Amino acid sequence: MTEPMVAQQAEPAPTTSAPQVRSGSSARWARVLWPALTIAGLGATTLALALRDPHAKGSWGMCPSAALGIDCPGCGGLRAVNDLTHGRFLDAASSNVLLVAMMPVAIYFLGRWLVDAWVGRSRSSSPLTMPLVVLGLVTLAVFTVLRNLPQFGWLAA
């Protein structure tokens, strides 16, 4: 009897060049690109809102939800940002109190995203992430309903 032939696997040929690795500075800028572009875009939008007053009717077009007679959670947001850029905090809160209240939270998370990208840190998801997202969505829904009820007219834009 003959023994079955066993196929031998050929070993891959050794490579002569090392894999391409980005330099530290180049890799850092690649990581920081999206946070930096997001912050730059928000900064440009804020500057535009500071320069062109959204309080003037039609200066930024017509809001689709306002055309339907509904104040969405964002209604008054442009006016609130304009008021904040001019230091009128009470006027900003009058335009959209939820946006004004959440602005420090948004600034914190944008800054943390940028710093994490800069140092190359990756954060794992917290067990609180999903409950906080749900709480945020419920808050937006309740805010939307309340600001459209007559007795809570002070929340409307």
Radius of gyration: 26 Å
Number of strands: 0
Specify the helix fraction band: 55-70%
Task: Supply the number of helical segments.
Answer: 6
* Low confidence ranges: none
Content-based structural category: mainly alpha
Distance between the termini: 92 Å
The amount of beta strand, in percent, is under 5%
Can you offer a commentary on this structure?
- The protein is mainly alpha-helical and 157 residues long.
- It is built from 6 helices and no strands.
- The longest helix has 28 residues, at 24-51.
How does the SSE layout of this entry go?
Elements: H1 24-51, H2 64-67, H3 77-85, H4 89-95, H5 97-119, H6 129-147
Helix pairs in contact: 1-3, 1-5, 3-4, 4-5
Structure, briefly:
The protein is an all-alpha fold.
Sum up the structure in keywords.
about 55% helix, about 160 residues, globular, about 0% strand, mainly alpha, single chain
